[in-house]
Amino acid sequence: MASIRTYSLIYVALILLATGKFVFFHFPEIFNYQVAVGGTLILAAIKVSLIAGYFQHLKDEPRSVTYLMLTAAFMVFLLTLAAGYSIQ
């Protein structure tokens, strides 16, 4: 199990990543909309991996559980794409 210091560092990293998402959209003279959306998606993926790895303790689980979670996330992504395609 990780120490309190590790959890504190992860918490600070999550706050900094959330601040980065704020910066992307509130400075349009630096970042255009496409860059802001792409950067936000990348930051969100990093945040999800930190939360799943440390706060949900997936990094201590066997690799099969990790692969199962990645497969489930991929299926959700495919379902979202299919739903978006059917709306158009």
TrEMBL record:
Annotated Gene Ontology cellular component terms: plasma membrane
Membrane topology listed for this record: Multi-pass membrane protein
Membrane-crossing residue ranges in chain numbering: 7-27, 33-55, 67-87
Chief site of localization: membrane
Compartment(s) of residence: Cell membrane
Keywords: Cell membrane, Membrane, Transmembrane, Transmembrane helix
Keyword rRNA-binding attributed: no
Organism (species): Natrinema ejinorense
Signal in keyword set: no
InterPro entries: Cyt_c_oxidase_su4_prok
Entry protein name: Cytochrome C oxidase subunit IV
